[in-house]
Design brief:
Elements lengths: L3 E5 L5 E5 L4 E5 L1 H10 L5 H11 L5 H12 L12 E3 L4 H9 L3 E5 L30 H16 L8 E8 L7 H13 L5 E9 L4 H10 L3 E5 L19 H14 L1 H7 E7 L5 H12 L4 E4 L10 H7 L3 H6 L4 H7 L5 H13 L12 E3 L12 E3 L4 E3 L11 E4 L2 E3 L2 H20 L15 E3 L2 E3 L6 H17 L1 H10 L4
Parallel strand pairs: 4-11, 5-6, 5-12, 6-7, 7-8, 8-9, 9-10
Antiparallel strand pairs: 1-2, 2-3, 12-13, 13-14, 14-15, 16-17
Helix pairs in contact: 1-2, 5-6, 8-9, 16-17
Amino acid sequence: MINTFLLKSNRNNYYAYDFSKKEMINISFFMYYYLQKMYQNIDEETIIREYSNTHSVEYKSDLEYLKCLLSNNYLTYEIEEFPIKFKHISEKDIENYLIFPNQITFEVTDACNLNCYYCSYGNLYGNYDKRESKYIKLETGIEFINYIVKNVENSVNKLKTKQVYISFYGGEPLLNFTFIKGIVLHCKQLKTYNLDFVFTMTTNGLLLNKHIDFLVENNFKILISLDGDKMSNSYRKLHNGNNSFDLLINNVNDIKKNYPSFFDKNINFNSVLHNKNNIEDIYEFFWDNFNKIPSIGELNSRGIKPDKKQEFEKLYKNADINFNNSNNQKYLEDKVFIGLPHVQFASLFLFKYTNYIGSVKLFKNMKIFPTGTCLPFSKKIHITVNGKILPCEKIDHQNPLGYITNGKVDIDKKVIVDFYNSQYNNIIKQCKSCYNIYSCTKCLYYMDYNNGNYICSSYSNKRQFEYLLTDMINQMEKNPEIYNKIFSEIIVE
């Protein structure tokens, strides 16, 4: 494996990146020249002679510095393998995450009062359970919460207090308000001091006016789906074909007027980027109307029906490309900053590939799990309207981790472990040679699968990684204020 990458920026500055040590070192032209020749197995005497014949710049202090780096095992050209080992999941891991989950998400109903063109459960997609306008049973939700509470009470860490988010998802969750109200009341009546419940909801907002008093009373954190102004929101249609924008905006403005403090602290927005809106207009709309910065996501590219791919591609818009095409990048950086794609990428790079902002130093035989797939139940537990137990709401429904049936939670830890480890074994060979190893966020559930093997679209070979490094140093030199701001203002968790 190539360990050291020699880089030249657009401004004719030179760098050496040591992959195993996660160090980007600014070097002189002489050091760049010397290392290039050394990596070609040319001896020092020849390198110095050839350099002196063509360059008059003094090199002795640079050579001394370079030898110091090399003697301390920096800038080694090749390594046998990455300084990381891979590990597999165990039943104990599953057990631990089931004791204190971070978030439990309920698919309250698969019914919806909208007919959004790009919906992940709509005509473009084919990787979900059939939508049958079902409502999840209150008994199903209560049974699972009781299951978690029992795990906590039986745990050796039962004196620990943990904040757990109870989230309501759809379809449109407020269509099944009876379930939401019942779960909230049940959680409040539980005789446990170990779980601090926080209630959240993702909603299209059309029914907020009917239930806002209850939501305010129970301090709900609410994420409203809205794609921007009326034109930007035109894919979010009612079943009669009309745009839902006016109805939603009336509800939002009523909350802003009648519950100003709740609106400021508890209401946020989520927008989907597509071919009828753009990042700049979305941010400007929410900032001007609500003094809010929305989260912006791309269309879900997983599970597209083969005969719908061309249709999907017409709708899809890449966030990075869209930002780069903006006429007001400086305005967006001042207003939004961390929400912008290139800032998120730069922050991730600095955190994962350098030792500058809290990155974990590598040590011999360090072990990690392959890919960026969340461990089962480590971040979320998602319960579908059909009682399937999934690791989150973003994946397809074809590989549940358990079921809730007839008032009983059925989670077989061994089956889960065997399934995940078999998937790890399938992909691990790619991971071992991938330069994206430090910062992989690619989920196994989002990878293509062909002839029994995963195909990882995030795989990075030597050439691709060298291109990424060069792009990063060019951005740093062009926009140093962005990186200074990242260092001074952003804490990467």
